[in-house]
């Protein structure tokens, strides 16, 4: 029997960007993400980019230099896709208790995009929502807290909302499908509340106000 689904959030004018980065195609993280995406309302735009197919150059910090628009084609594409989406979903397995190197490189480029003339990156990201989808080879999902914190604090810095991280257990290819709890949560993941992300000190100040 299918459980009752929570009421739909306000989806008009929402668009989702799924950024995939695993060391293998059709990995457990992607399986989980596609299950969650399948339960978005019909008509909500979805764009999927695979960093296996769109390799990014290493990030070079140019904050104290005069910089211009990105010159690398992949970087330009990803910048445009990122600011055009209302919801960005990072799909990465848990590697050494954090994001994959390629997913982290994508986030590192956000630092550079803050300084691209005319991009208004921080302003355009503010009010959007950051999500994560992660498969890990461990039954105790608490070991992924470092990854969750990284995404949460990134959202807080940009004044985004944070939708949380959909976690599932799976090491061998396709194994996440046997994680019934994860697959069940995937059906309602994008219907969950997305509060504004706040740093811990901001949450403490708000609680005392």
Task: Quickly describe the structure.
This protein is of the alpha/beta class and 209 residues long. 34% of the residues lie in helices and 15% in strands. Strands 2-1-3-4-5 form a five-stranded parallel β-sheet, sandwiched between helices.
Your description of this structure?
With 209 residues, the protein is an alpha/beta fold. The protein has helices at 28-37, 73-84, 101-113, 121-125, 145-157, 180-188, 200-208; strands at 16-20, 46-50, 87-91, 129-136, 161-169. Helix 1 runs parallel beside helix 6 (180-188). The longest helix has 13 residues, at 101-113. Residues 1-8 have low confidence and may be disordered.
Strand content: 15-25%
Tally of DSSP helical segments:
7
Order of strands across the biggest sheet? 2-1-3-4-5
Radius of gyration from the CA trace? 17 Å
Distance between the termini: 45 Å
Mean pLDDT: 89
Structural class: alpha/beta
Largest sheet: 5 strands, parallel
Give the ordered list of helices and strands. EHEHEHHEHEHH
Tell the overall outline: globular
Strand count: 5
Give the helix level as a range of percent: 25-40%
Identify low-pLDDT runs. 1-8
Write the layout of secondary structure elements.
Layout: E1 16-20, H1 28-37, E2 46-50, H2 73-84, E3 87-91, H3 101-113, H4 121-125, E4 129-136, H5 145-157, E5 161-169, H6 180-188, H7 200-208
Parallel strand pairs: 1-2, 1-3, 3-4, 4-5
